Amino acid sequence: MNILRTAHRRGLTAALSIVALGVALLFVSSHDGDNTSTDAFFVEEMFAQPVASCIIPAADDGSFALNGTKLPVGGLTFKVNQNTFPAGLNPLEVHASIAGSFLTWDSATSKVLFTHGGTTNAIPGSSDGISTIAFKKIKGSAVAVTTGWFNRKTKLLTEFDVALNTNYSWATNLLASGDCGGAAGRFDIGNVMTHEAGHATGLSDLTPTASNAQTMFAYVAYGELTKRTPGAGDLKGLAALYDGGQSSGQQSATSTSDFSNRAQ
Known about the structure:
By secondary structure, the protein is an alpha/beta fold. The protein is built from 4 helices and 12 strands, in the order E-E-E-E-E-H-E-E-E-E-E-E-H-E-H-H. The longest helix has 16 residues, at 91-106. The two termini are 21 Å apart.
């Protein structure tokens, strides 16, 4: 089920879209005669699986969805707020998990997508010129939230933030393997961060259960490691965005979070 509500008031357009298993929100502010400013943002939320345990994914269905934005030439620099790391975790392992998630996407394309800019004290969730990765208490049941700001005219991302919800327990599982080889009762940082970094590239959530082999599948489970490695559909989507690939695996418009189209 796809619900779209749009309100217009004195040049301001706000659209809220609730898509099946995940939630995607778009807010656009319009300035008279000015379509070049960075005045739009999207929010993508990831939720826990409705089942208690990790599930081995189905056969790779090759699907992907695009959110209507992409990174600029040369990519974007991100920074990590290590002051927010959960107590009990090795900070070096947390840094490695986060950095590795971005490297996963960089290694899958010929283009430069992300650059690690070190650490920051910034908090995710507001446009401050810093693409920030941090742990943060999030209202509601979302496991993680990615917010991206983009230019309305070019649809190029100018900044993104990722918040990992401290209401949940986390693990690095650096030596673990397999689809469900992570620590019980904890979400894997690299698994979730690879999904969230995928949003920054321009990929959107996939909601059909048949797509659960893809990194961009909207749900995540405790102990799950599947999303650390992009599926065939994830890679096709990335190629469509940056390497001139075809978008034949893209889902239909009813299940694709195409923010650029919804804003019009």
